[in-house]
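User: Here's a protein and a ligand (adenosine-5'-diphosphate). What would the complex look like?
Assistant: Let me lay out the input and then the predicted complex.
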Amino acid sequence: MDIAKYKVSKGKGFSLKEYSTFPTSQCKKKERVQFLESNRLEIQNLQSKLYAESKAGLLIIFQAMDGAGKDGAIKYVMSGVNPQGVRVHSFKVPNSTELAHDYLWRVQPCLPERGIIAIFNRSYYEDVLVVKVHELYKNLNILDRCKDSDTITKRYGHICNFEQYLYDNGIQLLKIFLNLSYEEQGNRFLRRLDRPDKNWKFSEGDIKERGYWNDYQVAYEKAITATATEIAPWYIVPADNKPYARMIVSEIVKKSLEALNPEYPRVSDEHAKRLMGYRDKI
Ligand code: ADP
Protein backbone atom coordinates (compact mmCIF):
# COMPACT_ATOMS: atom_id res chain seq x y z
CA MET A 1 0.00 0.00 0.00
CA ASP A 2 1.28 3.44 -0.94
CA ILE A 3 1.07 5.72 2.11
CA ALA A 4 3.08 8.58 0.56
CA LYS A 5 -0.11 10.20 -0.71
CA TYR A 6 -1.36 10.63 2.85
CA LYS A 7 1.89 12.08 4.18
CA VAL A 8 2.47 15.80 4.77
CA SER A 9 6.06 16.53 5.72
CA LYS A 10 6.12 20.13 4.53
CA GLY A 11 3.20 22.21 5.72
CA LYS A 12 3.59 25.17 3.38
CA GLY A 13 0.69 25.25 0.90
CA PHE A 14 -1.21 22.46 2.65
CA SER A 15 -4.92 22.42 1.89
CA LEU A 16 -7.24 20.00 3.66
CA LYS A 17 -9.71 20.16 0.77
CA GLU A 18 -7.23 18.33 -1.44
CA TYR A 19 -7.50 15.25 0.78
CA SER A 20 -10.42 12.93 0.31
CA THR A 21 -12.34 11.62 3.33
CA PHE A 22 -13.11 8.46 1.38
CA PRO A 23 -10.46 5.96 0.27
CA THR A 24 -9.68 5.96 -3.44
CA SER A 25 -9.31 2.17 -3.53
CA GLN A 26 -11.17 -0.62 -1.79
CA CYS A 27 -10.61 -4.31 -1.23
CA LYS A 28 -12.59 -7.40 -0.28
CA LYS A 29 -13.10 -8.30 3.37
CA LYS A 30 -10.89 -11.40 3.08
CA GLU A 31 -7.96 -9.39 1.70
CA ARG A 32 -8.46 -6.74 4.37
CA VAL A 33 -8.38 -9.28 7.18
CA GLN A 34 -5.21 -10.84 5.76
CA PHE A 35 -3.58 -7.44 5.34
CA LEU A 36 -4.37 -6.36 8.91
CA GLU A 37 -3.23 -9.69 10.34
CA SER A 38 0.05 -9.58 8.46
CA ASN A 39 0.68 -5.97 9.56
CA ARG A 40 -0.28 -6.79 13.12
CA LEU A 41 2.32 -9.55 13.27
CA GLU A 42 4.96 -7.30 11.74
CA ILE A 43 4.18 -4.45 14.17
CA GLN A 44 4.39 -6.96 17.02
CA ASN A 45 7.79 -8.15 15.82
CA LEU A 46 9.17 -4.61 15.32
CA GLN A 47 7.84 -3.43 18.67
CA SER A 48 9.52 -6.33 20.39
CA LYS A 49 12.86 -5.30 18.85
CA LEU A 50 12.26 -1.61 19.67
CA TYR A 51 11.68 -2.58 23.30
CA ALA A 52 14.74 -4.84 23.47
CA GLU A 53 17.02 -2.32 21.81
CA SER A 54 15.67 0.71 23.72
CA LYS A 55 17.39 3.22 21.46
CA ALA A 56 14.32 5.05 20.19
CA GLY A 57 10.82 5.85 21.39
CA LEU A 58 7.81 6.28 19.13
CA LEU A 59 5.10 8.84 19.82
CA ILE A 60 1.92 8.38 17.78
CA ILE A 61 -0.57 11.22 17.97
CA PHE A 62 -4.19 10.73 16.94
CA GLN A 63 -6.31 13.79 16.25
CA ALA A 64 -9.75 13.90 14.69
CA MET A 65 -13.26 15.28 14.85
CA ASP A 66 -15.66 13.39 17.13
CA GLY A 67 -16.83 10.07 15.74
CA ALA A 68 -13.88 9.65 13.37
CA GLY A 69 -12.87 6.33 14.92
CA LYS A 70 -9.73 7.14 16.93
CA ASP A 71 -10.48 4.58 19.64
CA GLY A 72 -11.21 1.79 17.16
CA ALA A 73 -8.11 2.52 15.09
CA ILE A 74 -5.90 2.44 18.19
CA LYS A 75 -7.52 -0.79 19.40
CA TYR A 76 -7.24 -2.64 16.10
CA VAL A 77 -3.78 -1.55 15.13
CA MET A 78 -2.14 -2.13 18.49
CA SER A 79 -3.94 -5.36 19.36
CA GLY A 80 -1.50 -8.13 20.04
CA VAL A 81 1.53 -5.95 20.82
CA ASN A 82 3.24 -6.55 24.12
CA PRO A 83 1.39 -4.26 26.59
CA GLN A 84 4.65 -3.74 28.50
CA GLY A 85 5.99 -1.68 25.63
CA VAL A 86 2.95 0.42 24.74
CA ARG A 87 1.15 3.18 26.63
CA VAL A 88 -2.03 4.94 25.59
CA HIS A 89 -2.87 8.36 27.02
CA SER A 90 -6.15 10.18 26.43
CA PHE A 91 -6.15 13.94 26.82
CA LYS A 92 -9.42 15.41 28.04
CA VAL A 93 -10.51 18.92 29.09
CA PRO A 94 -7.68 20.10 31.36
CA ASN A 95 -8.38 20.20 35.11
CA SER A 96 -7.56 23.19 37.32
CA THR A 97 -4.06 21.93 38.17
CA GLU A 98 -3.27 21.43 34.49
CA LEU A 99 -4.66 24.85 33.61
CA ALA A 100 -2.45 26.47 36.23
CA HIS A 101 0.61 25.17 34.34
CA ASP A 102 2.02 25.82 30.87
CA TYR A 103 0.01 23.79 28.33
CA LEU A 104 2.80 21.30 27.56
CA TRP A 105 3.24 20.44 31.23
CA ARG A 106 0.66 17.67 31.32
CA VAL A 107 2.12 15.76 28.40
CA GLN A 108 5.64 15.49 29.86
CA PRO A 109 5.00 12.47 32.13
CA CYS A 110 3.31 10.72 29.21
CA LEU A 111 6.22 10.95 26.78
CA PRO A 112 7.69 7.57 25.84
CA GLU A 113 11.06 6.61 27.16
CA ARG A 114 13.33 4.95 24.59
CA GLY A 115 12.02 1.49 23.76
CA ILE A 116 8.37 2.46 24.31
CA ILE A 117 5.53 3.32 21.95
CA ALA A 118 3.26 6.02 23.38
CA ILE A 119 -0.08 6.72 21.78
CA PHE A 120 -1.78 10.04 22.41
CA ASN A 121 -5.54 9.91 21.92
CA ARG A 122 -5.80 13.68 21.40
CA SER A 123 -2.77 15.67 22.49
CA TYR A 124 -1.23 19.11 22.94
CA TYR A 125 -2.70 19.85 19.49
CA GLU A 126 -6.00 20.46 21.29
CA ASP A 127 -4.31 23.61 22.56
CA VAL A 128 -4.32 24.98 19.01
CA LEU A 129 -7.62 23.35 17.94
CA VAL A 130 -10.49 23.50 20.45
CA VAL A 131 -8.61 26.29 22.25
CA LYS A 132 -8.41 28.28 19.00
CA VAL A 133 -12.00 27.59 17.93
CA HIS A 134 -13.44 28.76 21.27
CA GLU A 135 -10.63 31.20 22.12
CA LEU A 136 -10.26 29.38 25.45
CA TYR A 137 -6.86 30.94 26.09
CA LYS A 138 -8.72 34.19 26.83
CA ASN A 139 -10.20 32.56 29.95
CA LEU A 140 -6.80 31.69 31.44
CA ASN A 141 -5.75 33.40 34.63
CA ILE A 142 -2.48 34.58 33.11
CA LEU A 143 -0.62 37.77 32.18
CA ASP A 144 -2.28 39.72 29.36
CA ARG A 145 0.78 39.37 27.14
CA CYS A 146 0.29 35.58 27.26
CA LYS A 147 -3.25 35.69 25.87
CA ASP A 148 -3.19 38.14 23.03
CA SER A 149 -4.15 37.66 19.38
CA ASP A 150 -0.78 35.99 18.66
CA THR A 151 -1.25 33.25 21.24
CA ILE A 152 -2.11 30.46 18.81
CA THR A 153 0.56 31.48 16.29
CA LYS A 154 3.15 31.43 19.07
CA ARG A 155 1.95 27.99 20.11
CA TYR A 156 2.59 26.62 16.61
CA GLY A 157 6.18 27.75 17.12
CA HIS A 158 6.40 26.14 20.58
CA ILE A 159 5.06 22.88 19.18
CA CYS A 160 7.59 22.79 16.33
CA ASN A 161 10.41 23.47 18.81
CA PHE A 162 9.05 20.87 21.23
CA GLU A 163 8.84 18.24 18.49
CA GLN A 164 12.37 19.02 17.35
CA TYR A 165 13.47 18.64 20.97
CA LEU A 166 11.77 15.23 21.20
CA TYR A 167 13.31 14.12 17.91
CA ASP A 168 16.76 15.21 19.12
CA ASN A 169 16.19 13.04 22.18
CA GLY A 170 15.46 9.87 20.25
CA ILE A 171 11.69 10.12 20.03
CA GLN A 172 10.20 9.62 16.57
CA LEU A 173 6.91 11.39 15.99
CA LEU A 174 4.00 10.28 13.91
CA LYS A 175 0.88 12.42 13.72
CA ILE A 176 -2.33 11.00 12.33
CA PHE A 177 -5.40 13.04 11.42
CA LEU A 178 -8.44 10.88 10.76
CA ASN A 179 -10.16 12.91 8.08
CA LEU A 180 -13.94 12.48 8.43
CA SER A 181 -16.65 14.19 6.37
CA TYR A 182 -19.48 16.21 7.89
CA GLU A 183 -22.03 13.82 6.38
CA GLU A 184 -20.40 10.69 7.76
CA GLN A 185 -20.07 12.26 11.21
CA GLY A 186 -23.83 12.87 11.06
CA ASN A 187 -24.46 9.21 10.13
CA ARG A 188 -22.31 7.98 13.00
CA PHE A 189 -24.01 10.26 15.53
CA LEU A 190 -27.41 8.98 14.32
CA ARG A 191 -26.23 5.39 14.82
CA ARG A 192 -25.22 6.29 18.36
CA LEU A 193 -28.80 7.43 18.96
CA ASP A 194 -30.44 4.52 17.16
CA ARG A 195 -28.46 1.64 18.64
CA PRO A 196 -28.84 0.99 22.39
CA ASP A 197 -25.35 -0.54 22.52
CA LYS A 198 -23.94 2.72 21.13
CA ASN A 199 -26.05 5.15 23.22
CA TRP A 200 -23.25 5.50 25.78
CA LYS A 201 -21.03 7.02 23.12
CA PHE A 202 -23.42 9.88 22.43
CA SER A 203 -22.58 13.18 24.04
CA GLU A 204 -24.45 16.47 23.80
CA GLY A 205 -21.07 18.18 23.65
CA ASP A 206 -20.34 16.41 20.36
CA ILE A 207 -23.44 18.00 18.79
CA LYS A 208 -22.37 21.42 20.02
CA GLU A 209 -18.90 20.99 18.49
CA ARG A 210 -20.46 19.78 15.24
CA GLY A 211 -21.92 23.27 14.95
CA TYR A 212 -18.36 24.59 14.72
CA TRP A 213 -17.37 22.17 11.94
CA ASN A 214 -15.98 24.80 9.57
CA ASP A 215 -14.00 26.52 12.31
CA TYR A 216 -12.43 23.18 13.21
CA GLN A 217 -11.53 22.50 9.58
CA VAL A 218 -9.76 25.87 9.46
CA ALA A 219 -8.03 25.18 12.78
CA TYR A 220 -6.82 21.77 11.58
CA GLU A 221 -5.61 23.17 8.29
CA LYS A 222 -3.66 25.94 10.02
CA ALA A 223 -2.20 23.61 12.65
CA ILE A 224 -1.09 21.05 10.05
CA THR A 225 0.33 23.78 7.80
CA ALA A 226 2.36 25.17 10.70
CA THR A 227 3.60 21.88 12.15
CA ALA A 228 4.07 19.34 9.35
CA THR A 229 7.82 18.77 9.08
CA GLU A 230 10.23 16.09 7.86
CA ILE A 231 10.95 15.04 11.42
CA ALA A 232 7.32 15.13 12.57
CA PRO A 233 5.05 14.50 9.58
CA TRP A 234 1.27 14.45 9.56
CA TYR A 235 -0.71 11.72 7.81
CA ILE A 236 -4.16 12.69 6.56
CA VAL A 237 -6.08 9.42 6.65
CA PRO A 238 -9.48 9.14 4.91
CA ALA A 239 -11.78 8.09 7.74
CA ASP A 240 -15.26 7.73 6.20
CA ASN A 241 -14.66 4.00 5.78
CA LYS A 242 -13.52 2.61 9.14
CA PRO A 243 -12.01 -0.71 7.99
CA TYR A 244 -9.97 0.99 5.30
CA ALA A 245 -8.82 3.72 7.70
CA ARG A 246 -7.52 0.99 10.03
CA MET A 247 -5.59 -0.59 7.17
CA ILE A 248 -3.92 2.71 6.33
CA VAL A 249 -3.11 3.46 9.98
CA SER A 250 -1.59 0.01 10.46
CA GLU A 251 0.55 0.49 7.36
CA ILE A 252 1.73 3.91 8.56
CA VAL A 253 2.66 2.54 11.99
CA LYS A 254 4.44 -0.45 10.46
CA LYS A 255 6.42 1.69 8.02
CA SER A 256 7.41 4.14 10.77
CA LEU A 257 8.70 1.31 12.92
CA GLU A 258 10.56 -0.16 9.95
CA ALA A 259 12.22 3.22 9.36
CA LEU A 260 13.60 3.08 12.90
CA ASN A 261 15.14 -0.26 11.96
CA PRO A 262 15.20 -1.73 15.47
CA GLU A 263 17.38 -4.80 16.07
CA TYR A 264 17.77 -7.16 18.99
CA PRO A 265 20.95 -6.16 20.83
CA ARG A 266 23.92 -8.45 20.06
CA VAL A 267 26.32 -9.37 22.79
CA SER A 268 30.10 -9.14 22.25
CA ASP A 269 32.02 -12.28 21.19
CA GLU A 270 33.62 -12.39 24.61
CA HIS A 271 30.22 -12.21 26.30
CA ALA A 272 28.86 -14.90 23.96
CA LYS A 273 31.75 -17.18 24.94
CA ARG A 274 31.00 -16.62 28.63
CA LEU A 275 27.35 -17.49 28.01
CA MET A 276 28.36 -20.80 26.42
CA GLY A 277 30.31 -21.54 29.60
CA TYR A 278 27.06 -21.42 31.60
CA ARG A 279 25.76 -24.44 29.65
CA ASP A 280 27.76 -26.81 31.81
CA LYS A 281 26.39 -25.24 34.98
CA ILE A 282 22.74 -25.88 34.08
P1 ADP B 1 -12.89 11.62 23.02
O1 ADP B 1 -13.80 12.51 22.22
O2 ADP B 1 -11.43 11.87 22.72
O3 ADP B 1 -13.25 10.17 22.91
P2 ADP B 1 -14.10 12.90 25.25
O4 ADP B 1 -15.45 12.72 24.68
O5 ADP B 1 -13.93 12.76 26.73
O6 ADP B 1 -13.03 11.96 24.55
O7 ADP B 1 -13.60 14.34 24.79
C1 ADP B 1 -12.46 14.93 25.27
C2 ADP B 1 -12.69 16.42 25.15
O8 ADP B 1 -11.61 17.09 25.76
C3 ADP B 1 -12.74 16.88 23.71
O9 ADP B 1 -13.91 17.64 23.50
C4 ADP B 1 -11.52 17.78 23.57
O10 ADP B 1 -11.69 18.86 22.69
C5 ADP B 1 -11.33 18.23 25.01
N1 ADP B 1 -9.97 18.69 25.27
C6 ADP B 1 -8.83 17.99 25.16
N2 ADP B 1 -7.76 18.79 25.43
C7 ADP B 1 -8.25 20.01 25.67
C8 ADP B 1 -7.65 21.25 25.99
N3 ADP B 1 -6.33 21.40 26.09
N4 ADP B 1 -8.46 22.31 26.21
C9 ADP B 1 -9.81 22.18 26.12
N5 ADP B 1 -10.43 21.03 25.82
C10 ADP B 1 -9.67 19.96 25.60
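Summary: The pocket of adenosine-5'-diphosphate is lined by residues 66, 90-94, 121-122, 126-127, 130-131, 136, 203 (CB under 6 Å).
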